[in-house]
C-alpha cells in the first residue's frame, strides 16, 4: 500500500509539473533526475536493510567521501584506479566492521556509534587531503566510463543502480539469510530463541551498508574526476528520508528496497520541481524536512495502531 501510494503521488506531481514547467518532462531533466538519485540510491539500499534490522547509520555521507578520498589518494600514488577503488571499498567495509563491533560486542547503539563514526571518518578525509580537493583528471577513460559513459544512450550509472536494486530487492524478498534481517528487527529476543545469531546479522548488515557507501564513493569519483573532503555532507538526511518515506520503519522489522527507491524518486522529483519553479534553496531544505517529518509521523501512527 505504501509503494502504491508513492507511485500515485509521484505520477500526480509529475503530471502537475508537466503543465507548470515545459522543461520538466524533457529527456534532459528526466536524465538529470535519474543521475541525481542513482548513486545515492545504492546507499539507500544498504540503509534500508540496516533500518529493517533495527539500526541506523549516520556516517554514510562521510564513508562515501572517505572512499573517494582513499581511492583518489592511492591513484595519485601510482596505484591503478581499479585496485585503488577496491582498496577504497575495502576500507569502507572495515569502517562498517568497526561500527558493527561496537554495536554487537561493546553494546553501544547504532545511533551513537554511527554519529561518532561520522565525525571520525570526516576528520580522516580532511587529514588525508589536508583539506584540499584531489584533482583526478588523469583517470583513464575506461575508468571514467563508469560514471560518465553510456550504453545505447543509457548512462552506466543508472544500469549499475538498477542492477543493485533488482538484486537486493530479490534477496530481501526471497533469500533465507535476508529473512533473518526481518526476524531480528521485528523481535530480537524471539529471533534468538529461534536459533538466529542476531549479533552476526546486525554485524554483517552494518558492514553491508558501509560497503555500498564505499561503492557509491568510487562511482562519484569516476563521475566527477575529483575527491573533495567535504563531499557528502548532509547526504545521510536524504538517504534516511528516502528509506523512511518508502516504508522502512525506524523501529525495525519492516521495509522494502523498491519502496525506498520510490522514496528517493519522490525526493528527486520534489527537488527538481522546486528548482524549475525557482524556489529558494532554503525553502527546499525546509520542505524536504517536512516531508521526512510527515513520513515518520505516518510510520509512528501505523505502528501504534498495529500495537
Describe the structure in brief:
The chain has 307 residues and is mainly α. Helices cover 77% and strands 3% of the residues. It has helices at residues 2-20, 27-52, 60-76, 81-106, 110-129, 141-148, 156-174, 176-186, 188-193, 198-224, 235-245, 257-276, 281-306, and strands spanning 134-135, 150-151, 154-155, 226-227.
Describe this structure in words.
The protein is 77% helix and 3% strand. It is mainly alpha-helical. The protein has a domain at 37-231. The strands form 2 sheets. It has a two-stranded antiparallel ribbon with strand order 1-4. Strand 2 and strand 3 (154-155) form a beta hairpin. The protein starts with a helix and ends with a helix. The mean pLDDT is 87.
Overall 3D shape: globular
Order of strands, main sheet, comes to 1-4
Q: By helix and strand content, what is the structural category?
A: mainly alpha
Order of helices and strands: HHHHHEHEEHHHHEHHH
Low-confidence runs: none
The major beta sheet can be summarized as:
2 strands, antiparallel
Mean pLDDT, to the nearest integer, reads 87
